[in-house]
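User: Show me a protein chain along with its predicted structure.
Assistant: Here is one chain, sequence first, then structure tokens.
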Amino acid sequence: MDTIHIPELLTAPKQMRVIEFEEGLPDLETLTPVKGCLKVAHQGNYLEIKASAETIVTLSCDRCLQHYNHRLHIQVSEMIWLNDRVERFDEDGLEYEVALEDLVETLPPQGYFQPEVWLYEQLCLALPQRQLCDQECAGIPVPAQLEAVEVIPDRRWASLEALKGKFPL
């Protein structure tokens, strides 16, 4: 997907660009190409972005560590404000305070919109936080011989163990 120069959207029909795509994203490992449609519309002081996309990714189950396939489907929209005073992070890595009203996505009006990066971010946000191959997944099976192993007490705790039964709880 090509980068979109924001001022060029003003001369496009309906000040909108529609991108149909079926391709892989370099930073996202998928089994199938990401397929969908992305619409970027210039609305004066903001960009309105709508996307519908789907693909299949391979995830690792949090319980049993087995790999499984997951269909990833997104249907999202976002407004990105166009602002001349877009502040960048300081290269020195110093911290700075961010006001609540600054917690919005902004781009410079004469800048560029990168649809591939935006789509990658949206797909990553759509990945499930709890990755389970099945709701009934029991996890990693523990052999019966390991369950029956008697715990050998540490002799350093013996004095504390002797006191344990002498005091009421």
